[in-house]
Amino acid sequence: QVTSRKYPRLKEVDDVLGGAAAWENVDSTAEPCPKCEHPRAYFMQLQTRSADEPMTTFYKCCN
């Protein structure tokens, strides 16, 4: 018979892209948002793989 339950602690999650501060000084482009159809989006490029692979582009809606 079970007399008590013990739940494991959740791991802390780090923001991979650096949080809101990483998006402060980024460029925007004429890429429409697929969710709200806003005509512009911010973008940031990061090297996520080895140096011989192309950079990964991340987009965030301007709206």
From TrEMBL:
Biological process terms from the Gene Ontology for this record are: termination of RNA polymerase III transcription
Q: Which UniProt keywords apply?
A: DNA-directed RNA polymerase, Metal-binding, Nucleus, Transcription, Zinc, Zinc-finger
Instruction: Identify one Gene Ontology CC term for this UniProt entry.
Output: RNA polymerase III complex
Molecular functions (GO terms): DNA-directed RNA polymerase activity; nucleic acid binding; zinc ion binding
Which Pfam families does the record match to this protein? Zn_ribbon_TFIIS (PF01096)
Subcellular localization is given as: Nucleus
Q: Where is the signal peptide?
A: none
Q: Which residues form the TFIIS-type domain?
A: 29-63
Matches recorded under CDD domains: Zn-ribbon_RPC11
- Described purpose of this protein according to its UniProt entry: Core component of RNA polymerase III (Pol III) which synthesizes small non-coding RNAs using the four ribonucleoside triphosphates as substrates. Can mediate Pol I proofreading of the nascent RNA transcript. Anchors into the Pol III active site to constantly monitor transcription fidelity, cleaves mis-incorporated 5'-ribonucleotides and restarts the transcription process. Once Pol III reaches the poly(dT) termination signal, can induce Pol III clamp opening and transcription termination.
Q: What is stated as this protein's family in its record? A: Belongs to the archaeal RpoM/eukaryotic RPA12/RPB9/RPC11 RNA polymerase family.
Subunit text: Component of the RNA polymerase III complex consisting of 17 subunits: a ten-subunit horseshoe-shaped catalytic core composed of POLR3A/RPC1, POLR3B/RPC2, POLR1C/RPAC1, POLR1D/RPAC2, POLR3K/RPC10, POLR2E/RPABC1, POLR2F/RPABC2, POLR2H/RPABC3, POLR2K/RPABC4 and POLR2L/RPABC5; a mobile stalk composed of two subunits POLR3H/RPC8 and CRCP/RPC9, protruding from the core and functioning primarily in transcription initiation; and additional subunits homologous to general transcription factors of the RNA polymerase II machinery, POLR3C/RPC3-POLR3F/RPC6-POLR3G/RPC7 heterotrimer required for transcription initiation and POLR3D/RPC4-POLR3E/RPC5 heterodimer involved in both transcription initiation and termination.
Its name, as the record gives it, is DNA-directed RNA polymerase III subunit RPC10
Phylogenetic placement of the source organism: Eukaryota, Metazoa, Chordata, Craniata, Vertebrata
